[in-house]
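Note to self: user wants both folds in one dump. Writing first protein now.
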Amino acid sequence: MSLYVDIEKRLGAFRLQSKFEVADETLALLGASGCGKSMTLKCIAGIVTPDRGRIVLNDRVLFDSEKKIDLAPQQRRVGYLFQQYALFPNMSVEQNILCGIREGTRAEKRALLSEKIRLFRLEGLEKRHPAQLSGGQQQRVALARILCSEPQAILLDEPFSALDSYLKWNLELELTELLSGFHGPILWVSHDRGECRRSCQSVCVMEDGRTGEVTPMEQLFRRPATLSAARLAGVRSFLPARPCEGGIALEGWDITLPQPASRERVTVAVPDDAVLLGGAYTAVVQRVIHDLDGDLVLLRPEGAADAPPLQALLPKGSTAEVGQTLRFGLSAGRCLCYDACGEIFSADR
């Protein structure tokens, strides 16, 4: 089973260019708000018509601009879980679920309804309306309705964006469990890297309407391919650098990294784990931010207040004060270099 997408859509000054393929796994579409993630899902579901391109699900063409193919949403066999679940407010739980059952006799539909009520732990809620349900119960009803239609692909549009952290965590665990038995491509749209890392096997980063390459999820955090991907992966420090003898020199800092030779200025991404306490370099602590994982400190070289800042996450138990001189080391192997186009720089370029 696979979903192939290669589409373009222009909306005013915004241009969507989505191209990727996902097999029988969960793929995260990860990007900042407004980058085109939800628009991509709407095009796949048939809610929005692309200007050009092609969408193929399991060798079945859903959209082809050249061949004038554009299946209606009801014909696409794509389950779409909206952010607010899109339940019919004037219908009961069982009526909402029955809307997803399009085939079979009356008895067969009632049997399938009973099966989904048990599977999604909705016993005793059959006659309630959406306003009488918790967020988790609403989500289960929406999923039951989707799976009753026997979709070949499932689209999840930021399913936890409006929830508090405790409820979000519990619903995330529940959602992944309920989807574990689904065999087919799942697209999980989010701007939350932690959510994607826990729930998805692969990732496709979107920026300004364009999709990047599909990569394994762990690669995003180990070696993000672009500056945008590095930011989404949680890197907080980006320092300009220039070529010099022996590698590249961080501008404003007396630090040279033995990175691949470059003829141009580059941007160095410094992950938290690349900054090590106790080392050959010194810096002054300009700010301390108390975070859940430890203290985040903003560092600048002594006597160079205008130098680009370096952020470092101190391990739990370590403390620092504003104005303190801190000794640190920098792991060159964990730093990443990006060229002027924002693409990762390697020795073979």
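First done. Writing the second protein, which came from a different request thread.
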Amino acid sequence: MKRGLVLEGGAMRGLWTAGITDVMMEHGIEPDGLIGVSAGAAFGCNYKSRQIGRAIRYNTRFAKDPRYSGVRSLLRSGDYFNAEFGYHIVPKQYDIFDDDAFNQNPMEFIVVCTDVETGKPVYKPLTKVTSDTYDWIRASASMPLMSRVIELEGRKLLDGGVGDSIPLEYFESMGYDRNLVILTQPMGYQKKHLKLMPLIRMTLRKYPNMIKAMNERHIMYNKELAYVEQAEKEGRCLVIRPDAKIPIGHISHNPDEMRNVYEMGRSVGERYIESIKDFYQI
């Protein structure tokens, strides 16, 4: 049996997920592998480094810091979330990411990105911290219109949620047969066609396959939701989803709002912890 943890994205809704995963870490739950998309990757990496509370800590600390995120960063660099400060200075100087713990933890950790030239998902295993590790995580969480295209290992990359929003089927293909899936939208949610497609077409005009993937993302996402729900009915996965829409936008500079969402996640984590242990047969 291989125990997997699948974390979808959702930008700042990911703090709700971080509340759940922090509770899981506090209870000593160690999946064999974790696959994260976008915010699921950016916050999920703290699971492999076993750093409880890190995601909420640095997000609230730098919520209003223009070095971390904001329109100034977007206009100056093309990234709303400052790449150098957020992905290299913060984890090296201000809220240090535990590279050694990450390297020593045998948990498999995979981030999902989207290749803008093909419009297809890229699944990148991050076993040890290298010079590119933080940039792979950044690529997974780089939202179109809010981020520059990132070039890594000969690929041009953006937000993993465009290519594979909820990678349960991929993880099952890797042999993970007991998967906990944490979603950031409530039961019954269906994604709609993106209203910003005219702007997307102009901004990403060099990448027609990426434009096509974004134009059809709602179809892909809703099919994946149906796949997850069927797997849930068959007992192949345990799904945790919010009871209602998480009260935070894609972007937030309000530390109190962030803490509220995180605490909501913690409450759900405590509610589900015995079910998670039973499902994982711990």
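Dump finished. Worth passing along: Residues 229 and 273 are 20 Å apart (CA to CA).
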